[in-house]
């Protein structure tokens, strides 16, 4: 590979995706791997990125050990924390260039093609961002699953797990899902093991069960889903968009929550023009405004 080549990564709390593109953004190879959040597990994040790189390089007929001419542009959960960003860059094997990007900003750029817009990304975590006409951006939430990310997959899982434990403690009425949710999150481990090492991926694994139960009318699951939608609607409104501005919703939970978001927001929402990996490519190639965050 002699011209500019970009290895673009979208790192999430549950899974990561990688795409190798040429200078014009044409896809050469792509791959999927496990979690990538340097703020919760830097070593695991690096391992996921390198697994993605090896698959992409091999599929494109490139020697995986030859990274000198490759730009790694990674938009990942946890890279909003500058200490975690620095730790990831230090731990990652060298590439020709490493461009760490807040995952919300990469998704925002991909969603609107680098044009001013608003976006709410809802997957394992949650963030809302707005790109202003002057090229600056600001965000709402994205504080991480332990204190924020309200309405995301980890948050939904925590609410369900907490309620299941309340049922186990007999301080809440019996709930048909309680035992099955505890069994699902534990797997082959004990409850003590899970409580000793909780993580967003585990919590988010409960979300499909909660949403399915809500669709079937389970009152507890309905309450959790309604709260999640309320949080996401509040975030979208906090972006202070004008009526003419486009609001995008992205992420793995955008689709199942879409009809409830439209109803509650009372304004149109749109699917992203492209994904976060495209956003990373646009940023790394200079086709979109660099990440300049302001407080609003």
Record keyword descriptors for this entry.
single chain; 296 residues; alpha/beta; Nucleotidyltransferase, domain 5; 2 domains; five-stranded mixed sheet; four-stranded mixed sheet; 11 helices; 9 strands; 18% strand; globular
Give an account of the 3D structure.
By secondary structure, the protein is α/β, with parallel strands linked by helices. It folds into two domains: 5-113 and 274-284, Nucleotidyltransferase, domain 5; 116-272, Nucleotidyltransferase, domain 5 (2-Layer Sandwich), CATH 3.30.420.40. Helix content is 42%, strand content 18%. The chain is built from eleven helices and nine strands. It has helices at 42-59, 82-91, 103-112, 153-168, 178-186, 191-196, 200-204, 207-215, 219-238, 254-265, 276-284; strands at 5-11, 16-22, 27-33, 70-76, 97-102, 117-122, 126-131, 137-140, 247-250. The protein has a five-stranded mixed sheet with strand order 3-2-1-4-5, sandwiched between helices. Strands 8-7-6-9 form a four-stranded mixed sheet, with helices on both faces. α3 (103-112) packs across α11 (276-284). The N and C termini lie far apart (43 Å). The model has no long low-confidence stretch (mean pLDDT 92). Residues 9-254 form the ATPase BadF/BadG/BcrA/BcrD type domain. This is ATPase BadF/BadG/BcrA/BcrD type domain-containing protein. It comes from Azospirillum griseum.
């Amino acid at each position: 590979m002699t011209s500019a080549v970009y290895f673009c990564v979208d790192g999430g709390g549950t899974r990561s995706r990688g795409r190798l593109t040429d200078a014009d953004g044409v896809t050469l190879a792509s791959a999927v791997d496990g979690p990538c959040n340097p703020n919760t597990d830097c070593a695991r994040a690096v391992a996921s990125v390198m697994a993605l790189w090896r698959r992409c390089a091999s599929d494109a007929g490139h020697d995986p050990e030859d990274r000198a001419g490759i730009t790694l542009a990674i938009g990942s959960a946890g890279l909003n924390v500058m200490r975690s960003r620095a730790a990831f860059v230090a731990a990652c094997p060298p590439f020709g260039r490493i461009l760490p990007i807040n995952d919300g900003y990469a998704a925002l750029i991909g969603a609107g093609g680098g044009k001013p817009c608003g976006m709410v990304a809802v997957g394992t975590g949650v963030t809302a961002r707005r790109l202003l006409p002057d090229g600056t951006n600001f965000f709402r939430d994205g504080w991480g699953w332990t204190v924020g990310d309200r309405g995301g997959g980890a948050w939904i899982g925590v609410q369900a797990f907490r309620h299941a434990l309340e049922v186990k403690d007999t301080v809440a009425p019996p709930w048909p899902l309680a035992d099955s949710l505890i069994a699902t999150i534990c797997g082959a481990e004990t409850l003590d093991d899970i409580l000793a090492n909780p993580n967003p991926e585990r919590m988010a694994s409960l979300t499909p069960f909660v949403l399915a139960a809500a669709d079937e009318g389970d009152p507890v699951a309905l309450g959790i889903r309604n709260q999640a939608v309320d949080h996401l609607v509040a975030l979208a409104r906090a972006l202070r968009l004008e009526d003419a501005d486009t609001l995008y919703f992205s992420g793995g939970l955008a689709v199942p929550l879409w009809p409830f978001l439209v109803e509650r927001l009372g304004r149109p929402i749109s699917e992203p023009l492209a994904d976060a990996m495209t956003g990373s490519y646009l940023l790394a190639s200079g086709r979109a405004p660099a990440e300049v965050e302001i407080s609003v």
